[in-house]
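Exam revision sheet. Question 4 asks you to relate a sequence to its structure. Input first:
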Amino acid sequence: MYPARNWREYNHRYRLEGSQCKKCGLILFPHRLICPKCKAREFEVIQLPHEGKIISFTTQTTVPHGFEDEAPISLGIVELTNGLRLTTQIADCHPDKIKIGMPVKREFRKIREDGHSGINAYGYKFVPVR
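Answer key, structure tokens:
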């Protein structure tokens, strides 16, 4: 991962921070420069909820290069408790056990090793609430 990109993505990748439009209140993730609803340019940084529920999911048996050891990978759309939806990996759950409406919570995890140097990239994944 490039250092400049890593720096730009730090807050939403590691803290799950979003932004809320000061004019219309729309919550965005990741941050955008212009609100797609009202075209305003002023935002407030907000901490997004750690919990939500699965509203859709799929399982990939053919995975991208670098993720072969993790196959199959389950990806889902999670609706957070504030209504915001995001696409994320569903971890620590066999694909046959994932259900629509299943409560999940965010965990900070290693996503991948980048390049020959083995630099670890971290981010969030969602796991079932037990």
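Marking note for examiners. Residues 3-14 form the longest helix (12 residues).
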